[in-house]
Amino acid sequence: MSPTQPTFCTLAATVMASLLLATGAGHAAVSADEAAQLKGKLTPLGAEKAGNKDNSIPAWTGGLTQAPAGYKNGEPRPDLFAGEKPLLTINAKNMAAHADKLSDGVQALMKKYPDFNIEVYPTHRSAAAPQWVYDNTFKNATRAKTIEGGYGVEGAYGGIPFPIPKDGYEAIWNQRLAWRGGNFSMPMRVWVVTGDGQRSMASGGVQTLRQAYYDPNSSLEKFDGYYQYGKLVVDAPGSKAGEAILALDGVSEAAPRGLWQYLVGQRRVRKAPSVAYDTPDSVTSGIGLFDEAFTLFGPIDKHELKLVGKKELYIPYNNNRAARAKVDELLTPRTLNPAQVRWELHRVWEVEATLISGKRHVIPKRRYYLDEDTWQIVLFDGWDAKGQLWHTNYSLMLTAPDIPAVSNMTMWGGYDLQTGAYYLNMASNELPRQYEVKPPIPRSFFSPEALSNEGSR
């Protein structure tokens, strides 16, 4: 046997290591030397601090951390860049020249609707977080690891778990545990537009979220594994008023997901395991799927996650103007009004989700794009079993320097490229309150009993 020829044991070990990598089965935390980059060439959350070669993406210099003068918590946030003009407009006629910086979904919309375009503005790296989030992110870098084949995480608290990710599982956990502001409530409306251009309000109500993972008064040692509690109580239209959904999400099997639903017709709270995966989302009248809510909702263990890499992409960003637009101004018969949506060039992480053999999902392939500065999904596309692009989804990314944060929790939605229908969820347009930061919300508020009381009012 040649000294360079691997033995059977060596081959087996190599194959096993490859399988573990492919299935996302637990990476060790990064070394102290790697983590030191978070205090050097990387931002405290793991993005490249430097701009790109031509400075069309500028360097990150700390983000926006000061509330506008006179701003009060919960008010609609002002357009922070109101005086700027678009640098360029991209449409079906010139998209080929920019194809390397356009998602498949955006290109498909341009091909389907010749009047659809994106207006590209100067890039502002406005993302920021409190110092204690940066400090916890630095700690997480050398202590956090994925478990349960990549679908669980341990050793993380109060910051981005994997600021220097090694695979798609770590990147998606960064999205799940991204900083969005802790506790908040959002009066919201869900607007749907059918393929023939008819608009209606599918749902309205109040969404309340407690990000327990980001409780500054707790710690990793005290953390019980439930990173987020969410409750939606519907108050409109009249046919849905009183319906409610409660979701408790954990970081591992030790904190199993809890889902309950209150339906007015049944007048009782029941467990709702079907509020997940590819079940049509009743909140959006079935145009979207439940696992597309908030750009990613519930378990996605039917897909293998691959970290493709980083690229420059035109994405919706700093969209406070869109959040303040009149409903008639923002929602047009085929798409969101291009004149109201701000696009910028940013670096994103690309994660590809592919259906695992033997599993079932109506969208067997997805491609997620995560903003490098926040780790939040901004765009993602989904292909059907025939390999045809079907869903293209977006978040309009609200900038809230008063928190400070940039969040994908408001104004997100999706297009059905096959039927022509689309929706906008979590919209506060024309409502008096928007993404209001709250003090710590008692866990009792997120109980099935409290859900029953609110839903039956």
Describe what this molecule looks like in 3D.
The protein is built from eight helices and 20 strands. It is of the alpha+beta class and 457 residues long. The protein has helices spanning 8-22, 32-35, 104-112, 131-141, 168-176, 320-324, 327-330, 448-455; strands at 88-90, 118-120, 145-147, 152-154, 183-193, 199-210, 226-236, 244-250, 258-263, 268-271, 303-316, 342-355, 365-371, 377-383, 389-395, 398-400, 405-407, 412-416, 422-427, 436-437.
Can you give me a brief rundown of this structure?
This protein is an alpha+beta fold.
What does the radius of gyration come to? 22 Å
Task: Quickly give the structural class.
Answer: alpha+beta
Into which percentage range does the β-strand content fall? Answer: 25-35%
Main beta sheet, described? 16 strands, mixed
Q: Assign a percent range to the helix content.
A: 10-25%
Q: Which word captures the global form? A: globular
Question: How do the strands and helices of this protein lay out in sequence?
Answer:
Elements: H1 8-22, H2 32-35, E1 88-90, H3 104-112, E2 118-120, H4 131-141, E3 145-147, E4 152-154, H5 168-176, E5 183-193, E6 199-210, E7 226-236, E8 244-250, E9 258-263, E10 268-271, E11 303-316, H6 320-324, H7 327-330, E12 342-355, E13 365-371, E14 377-383, E15 389-395, E16 398-400, E17 405-407, E18 412-416, E19 422-427, E20 436-437, H8 448-455
Keywords:
single chain; about 15% helix; disordered N terminus; 8 helices; about 450 residues; two-stranded antiparallel sheet
